[in-house]
Design brief:
Helices cover about 25% and strands about 25% of the residues. It has about 260 residues and is α+β, with helices and mostly antiparallel strands. It has one domain: Deoxyribonuclease I, Chain A (4-Layer Sandwich), CATH 3.60.10. The strands form two sheets. The protein has a six-stranded mixed beta sheet with strand order 3-4-2-1-12-11. A six-stranded mixed beta sheet has the order 5-6-7-8-10-9. Strand 6 and strand 7 form a beta hairpin. The chain starts with a strand and ends with a strand.
Length: about 260
């Protein structure tokens, strides 16, 4: 076994992030696994030699719609298996899920839907939560060691949001969403950050409005979940709040694998 570093990072556009030095940051840090959400790009729109030169195997799952959603996994180790999507067309057409297997470990990178644009998308989000829970429950019967990272678009507890009272009716902090997170963490998964930092208030996303990031008025909506059989292998997990290529920051985990 050896220590591995895993980054989960919603870039809110990989092309914009590259213009802000994202590739230089990757080069300086040499992470083992980098899971990206909201790349908002198809591979053919990128200079993929950037990632080749950094020593990464890279795999992409892009939305049908250009400039929307989309996820990618970069890894120093070549995966044994890569699968894009979960087999449900309405989610797969939005480029939300990518899976990579490394030996007996399955790494899932998921960009959960946002419900902030209205009732239709909030209902879509609820459907996604139900369907993805079942899909992963089935997967867990075959794959016992799973790490699911990504932008869950939900702040789980009052510790995970700067102003829980004023946001109690906001998408991303609704009682039904928070209850799903509790169900998720009761189903055999551990919140890596909270496991290592039970009392720390640290956020992973800030609105661009009202100087929210400078004032640290944020939400923790990006998570690294590990099956309970891996939780004691977690060495550290925290938000890299000083890294700025996006309105999110990366979530960092070091784990013995």
């Amino acid at each position: 076994m050896s220590d591995k570093t895993i980054i989960s990072y919603n870039l809110n556009g990989i092309r914009a992030a590259l213009r802000k030095g994202f590739d230089t940051w990757l080069d300086e840090n040499n992470f083992d696994f980098v899971c990206l959400q909201e790349t908002k790009a198809h591979p053919e729109q990128l200079d993929l030699s950037i990632f080749d030169n950094l020593g990464y195997h890279h795999h992409w799952h892009s939305a049908v719609k250009k400039g929307y959603s989309s996820v990618a996994i970069l890894s120093k180790t070549k995966p044994d298996l890569v699968e894009a999507g979960c087999g449900i067309e309405k989610y797969d057409s939005e480029g939300r899920i990518i899976r990579a297997d490394f030996g007996d470990l399955t790494l899932l990178n998921i960009y959960f839907p946002s419900g902030t644009s209205g009732e239709a998308r909030q209902n879509f989000k609820y459907e996604f939560l139900d369907d993805i829970f079942k899909w992963i429950s089935d997967l867990k019967k075959k794959r016992k060691k799973i790490i699911l990272v990504g932008d869950y678009n939900i702040a789980h507890t009052e510790m995970d949001i700067h102003n829980p009272v004023s946001n109690k009716k906001s998408s991303g902090f609704l009682p039904e969403e928070r209850a799903w997170m509790t169900k998720w963490f009761d189903s055999g998964f551990t919140d890596a950050f909270r496991f290592k930092n039970p009392d720390k208030e640290q956020y992973s996303w800030w609105t661009y409005r009202a100087n929210a990031r400078a004032n640290n008025k944020g939400w923790r909506i990006d998570y690294q979940s590990v099956t309970n059989n891996l939780k004691d292998n977690i060495i550290e997990c925290h938000q890299l709040t000083d890294v700025v290529h996006s309105d999110h920051c990366p979530v960092y985990m070091k784990i013995e694998l």
